[in-house]
Design a protein that fits this description.
Helix content: 10-25%
Number of helices: 8
Signal peptide: 1-30
Distance between the termini: 196 Å
Structural class: alpha+beta
Pfam family, one: Bact_surface_Ig-like
Protein name: DUF5011 domain-containing protein
Strand order of the largest sheet: 2-7-6-5
Organism: Lacticaseibacillus paracasei (Lactobacillus paracasei)
Region (Disordered): 36-69, 129-220
Shape: elongated
Number of strands: 26
């Protein structure tokens, strides 16, 4: 009876270990649910199995691997552990591996064939990882205490039952269903050689997290900015020019770049190019670029011009037109407007031209008809006396390039009543009605003082002489100041010179010299 109880515990350990190896935490839950329903069945089956003659090792080897049930595999392992010289731990691992080598999902499902276990098993298989075979050298085999989903208080239902050795079996405590959002309580491993020794607590069984793949760096695409290019009937656009790609793991991936879309340089429009590159890990980077194909408009070369009156004018002189796509378009230029070179003034001409793609350009310029100016001669500065009436036309002439006998010119009057610098203006109107003017400077000076009573004199030795006697000066500008230089010695015979200066209030001076003879 004691062997039967021990084998039942060992049987449950093998199933639980296999379920955990196959399904992780979900397998543990499923095995626990099934244990209480299967416990009696396993005991009865084991008793019947023990009464049968033991099969030879040769006959066991002939069994088809795929037809073995979980119970058959476990029974075989238990028999080997009791008859073989190999250790029991090896037999457990062999049984677990045999279950995994067979159809694991089906065999575990049979072994855990209860409604509750089926539901738990179905939920757990969604996250199955490939089973890992146990080996003889591993020492990670864990025996777990059976858990049950039966909420019946086994401490009451199992009362009165005893084992072969007369001891009352340890009741199995009920557990609550596992909440996937909460960690499972720590479980206590069971030593199969000593079921009464519960062993040491182990860490809680947490849901298995999927293994994260190695982090892969996405490729980097270097794509220039959007671009506008000229329409061309013969050119092509290199969609990969200036495009590069690189990857941290794979290095240069420029040759692996793929392009979706194209650019037709012969047609105006906007073209979208999509670039993509994929690294060896399957990670793809993409980028877009917009290329605008634009028709370059023709260019007209024409500038404002001046034309001399009376001359001929060619509106296409110095005018050209060209186009990037069509080349020289000068012959296609059209002109609107008119220039009359017989009249002075400004006129406008408008030039227009179209290229073969329908692009049109216009330009307007100004044409100015001018006449050469007539010129004066003899207009040097002139000095005149205050109050005089000078002839301002004397010595002055005009030259007109468009008239052999130019008409008379005019001149403004000059005020000579007051001294100072004056200005007069000479004007001439040519045949085109163009007025030519030029200024002339006139210096008006006041009349100088005039002496009266100054003349050479002869006196006798010893006579009295007054140098200012009978001397006076007058000026139109007001009072005059008279001064003299020199001396006459009437006690000595000889010739004496006296210099007289008369200064008016404008600073104008008059000098006069006389000789006084003493006999």
């Amino acid at each position: 009876m004691k062997n039967q109880q021990t084998n039942n515990k060992k049987r449950h350990i093998i199933i639980t270990t296999t379920a955990v190896a196959l399904l992780g935490a979900g397998g543990l839950w499923a095995a626990t649910q099934a244990h209480s329903d299967q416990q009696a069945t396993h005991t009865s089956s084991y008793q019947k199995k023990m009464q049968k003659p033991k099969a030879s090792k040769g006959s066991q080897a002939k069994k088809e691997k795929g037809k073995n049930t979980v119970n058959d595999i476990i029974d075989q392992a238990l028999e080997e552990s009791s008859t073989s010289t190999s250790n029991e731990d090896h037999a457990f691992k062999s049984a677990t591996n045999n279950i995994l080598d067979s159809d694991p999902i089906a065999t575990i499902a049979k072994a855990l064939d209860t409604p509750t276990a089926k539901a738990s098993l179905a939920a757990a298989t969604a996250a199955v990882e490939p089973p890992k075979a146990l080996n003889d050298n591993s020492d990670d085999t864990a025996s777990v205490k059976p858990l049950t989903n039966d909420t019946t208080d086994t401490s009451q239902t199992d009362q009165g039952k005893t084992n072969d050795d007369g001891k009352t079996p340890t009741p199995v405590n009920p557990i609550e269903p596992v909440d996937p959002d909460k960690p499972v309580n720590p479980i206590t491993p069971v030593n199969p050689d000593n079921p009464d020794n519960p062993g040491n607590p182990v860490d809680p069984v947490n849901p298995v997290n999927p293994v994260q793949p190695d982090q892969n760096t996405a490729p980097v695409l270097n794509v220039p900015e959007d671009q506008t290019v000229s329409l061309s009937h013969n050119g092509t656009f290199d969609v990969l020019n200036g495009i590069t790609a690189s990857d941290k793991e794979d290095g240069d991936l420029t040759k692996a770049i793929k392009v979706t879309g194209n650019v037709d340089l012969s047609k105006e429009g906007t073209y979208t190019l999509t670039y993509s590159v994929t690294d060896s890990a399957g990670q793809t980077t993409s980028a877009k670029r917009v290329i605008t194909v634009a028709n370059d408009l023709p260019v007209i070369s024409a500038n404002d011009q001046t034309v001399e009156v009376g001359t001929s004018f060619d509106p296409m002189a110095n005018v050209t037109a060209s186009d990037v796509q069509d080349g020289d378009l000068t012959k296609d230029v059209k002109v609107t407007g008119n220039v009359d070179t017989t009249k002075l003034g400004t006129s406008q001409l408008t030039y227009s031209v179209s290229d073969h793609d329908g692009g049109q350009t216009t330009k307007t310029i100004n044409i100015t008809v001018y006449a050469k100016d007539a010129s004066f001669s003899g207009l040097d500065a002139l000095t005149v006396q205050q109050g005089s009436t000078p002839d301002l036309r004397k010595g002055v002439s005009v030259s007109d390039p468009y008239s052999a006998t130019p008409s008379d010119f005019t001149v403004t009057t000059c005020d000579t009543k007051t001294p100072g610098q004056k200005s007069v203006t000479y004007s001439y109107v040519d045949k085109w009605g163009h007025v030519i003017t030029q200024d002339r400077v006139i210096h008006v000076v006041a009349e100088k003082p005039v002496f009266k009573g100054l003349q050479d004199q002869t006196i006798k030795l010893g006579d009295h002489f007054d140098p200012m006697a009978g001397v006076s000066a007058t000026s139109t500008n007001g009072p005059v100041t008279i001064s003299y230089e020199g001396e006459v010695n009437t006690q000595k015979a000889g010739r004496y010179t006296l210099i007289y200066t008369a200064t008016d209030q404008n600073g104008q001076q008059t000098q006069q010299t006389i000789v006084v003879t003493v006999e």
